[in-house]
Write a structure and sequence with these properties.
The chain is mainly β and about 110 residues long. It has no helices and nine strands.
């Protein structure tokens, strides 16, 4: 909201020189339809990004977040963005469990 995403389309001189873009893409994808990614923002006092998500439909289970870039570190953090515990990750994804209506906050670094 405070820092809107700006996109600029730059036409190439020839279509052959233009790189092909995928039909869709994003910063992060969530494997569970019952989990809402509410916030993705730059961390206030450190490097990395804060990803805040919550379970919205009274369900529990595993959730896999897949990022567009390889991860270098992932921590669970509180709402004040203080690191609580390091989480295991695999290249560009992290898997975690979620319970009904639970809010989870993660700090991710690339």
């Amino acid at each position: 909201l405070n820092n809107p995403l700006l996109v600029e389309v730059v036409p190439s001189e020839s279509e052959a020189a233009a790189p092909a873009l995928p039909p869709a893409g994003g910063f992060v994808a969530c494997s569970a339809g019952h989990v809402i990614m509410d916030t993705i923002k730059a961390a206030e006092n450190s490097n990395g990004f804060i990803v805040r998500l919550y379970e919205a439909y009274n369900q529990r289970g595993k959730v896999r977040l897949t990022f567009a870039q390889p991860l270098s570190a992932v921590w669970e953090c509180n709402l004040l963005e203080e690191n609580a515990a390091a989480l295991a990750y695999d290249n560009n994804s992290v898997e975690l469990s979620i319970t009904p209506y639970q809010v989870r906050s993660l700090r991710v670094c690339f």
